[in-house]
């Protein structure tokens, strides 16, 4: 009797602990499995130049999506000063995060430096192809060249983004800075980088496009 009692008293706590651990493990795993990972790949507009981390585009986007009941984690893949060439060189390292959705916000610095539209097109083409090859859904955001670069350049540059979105059948948001560009009250003193309030407007306008793209995660590739 004593031996049996001792055996049970020694076994039950261990069995209970193991069962509890298993339940917690499976619960945590299920939660992680349901979480969507979004990679925001971009330049200073994504990185949050001149802003606190919580004011950046990735942080505000994640907050907005979570507030609408989405289980998401948004990775800040922005790098100030980056061009489409730089973004392409960083892509493989960022893909190690296994994103479900990749938002490509690149090209602004190509335009500011008046780089060849052909180079920008080639780089974005490869960014989309390599992103889709992982099975991730892609949301391409458009950018517009400054008028002082000349009519021909502006037309060639601006046409890159919708053409590539159509070619590859990816989600498309026409202009990342829609509602914010050229508004001094929504931009920092340089007139280029949005304030936290400006980013909030960007997030509010792009949010439906991101939500639509999230419904396709796992379907593209």
TrEMBL record:
This entry's Gene Ontology molecular function terms read:
phosphatidylcholine lysophospholipase activity
Q: Which residues form a coiled coil?
A: none
Q: InterPro entries, per this entry?
A: Ester_Hydrolysis_Enzymes, SGNH_hydro, SGNH_hydro_sf
User: Which intervals hold domain SGNH hydrolase-type esterase?
Assistant: 40-198
User: What name appears for this protein in its UniProt entry?
Assistant: Acyl-CoA thioesterase-1
Origin species: Aestuariispira insulae
């Amino acid at each position: 009797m004593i031996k049996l009692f001792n055996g049970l008293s020694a076994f039950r706590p261990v069995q209970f602990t193991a069962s509890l651990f298993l339940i917690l493990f499976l619960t945590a795993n299920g939660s992680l499995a349901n979480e969507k990972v979004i990679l925001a790949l971009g330049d200073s507009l994504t990185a949050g130049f001149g802003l606190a981390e919580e004011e950046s585009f990735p942080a505000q986007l994640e907050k907005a999506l979570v507030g609408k009941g989405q289980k998401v984690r948004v990775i800040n893949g922005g790098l100030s000063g980056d061009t489409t060439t730089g973004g392409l060189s960083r892509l493989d390292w960022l893909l190690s995060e296994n994103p479900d959705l990749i938002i490509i916000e690149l090209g602004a610095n190509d335009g500011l430096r008046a780089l060849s539209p052909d180079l920008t097109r080639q780089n974005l083409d490869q960014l989309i192809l390599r992103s889709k090859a992982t099975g991730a859904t892609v949301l391409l955001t458009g950018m517009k060249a400054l008028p002082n670069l000349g009519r021909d350049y502006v037309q060639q540059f601006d046409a890159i983004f919708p053409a590539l979105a159509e070619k590859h059948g990816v989600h498309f948001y026409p202009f990342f800075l829609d509602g914010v560009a050229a508004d001094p009250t929504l931009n920092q003193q340089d007139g280029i980088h949005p304030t936290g309030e400006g980013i909030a407007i960007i997030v509010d306008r792009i949010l439906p496009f991101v939500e639509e793209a999230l419904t396709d995660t796992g379907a593209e590739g």
